[in-house]
Amino acid sequence: MSNFKFSSIKKPLLGAALLKTAPVLMGKGGSGEEGGKSQLGVNHLILEETPGHGAIICTPKEAETTTKTGSQLMPSDLIVAVDPFETKYFEIVFNVREMLVNEKDRVLLLLYSQELTQSPQIPTPKSINKFQLDLARCEVLGLYDIPAQSMFATNATRIGQANPASRSIVSLSVNLDTNILPVYMKKSGKSIYLQAALLSRSDLDAGNFETMILSEVDVISFVEMECPEDRHGFAESANSATVTFTK
Q: Where are the domains of the chain?
């Protein structure tokens, strides 16, 4: 097992630490196959993006898209439009959904990479989603400590009863420098790939990354000024409480 500790993950670059652990995990035996019945919050999460300051999220105009599952409100392949002359930074809000209440301390990671890998470099048998990011270029965008939680059972009321297996959503706001835009403009063919991962604090400290449950991989590319003609645009409203349709 790796000597990697929780304190090490505070550094932006995660890939080197995970790579030390990956060969150990791959050599444990067993198939390491991801699969099984889909159970939100048990064996996978949902990652979705909403626009923050200075950003417009562009989604396909078609009501149905192959990049959107039945549980997702937003497609997984997005374009973000930014006016680089209007602001020095722009904000994207990453929402990780369907985290079940758990009596263990856990850690939520928002990871990104500039490349995907053809086969998972870490097996995640507890997750139906595979770890698809290239570890060599993987960095931590967000790190969120989730303390142990519990929900008390309640009595039935006239209108119903609360489900004790409640789920939560964590929203991580990330400020991105507009200086990155020339590198990632859609015409350059470059995108960023993102995935959320959830595991217990003790497993993270011990380097047991095979216990992660993962979201799908979301893909973001960037354009300047406005959305392409085949996309709807959504932006943060003036009161920062809602998202508004732009075209």
A: 6-146+166-239
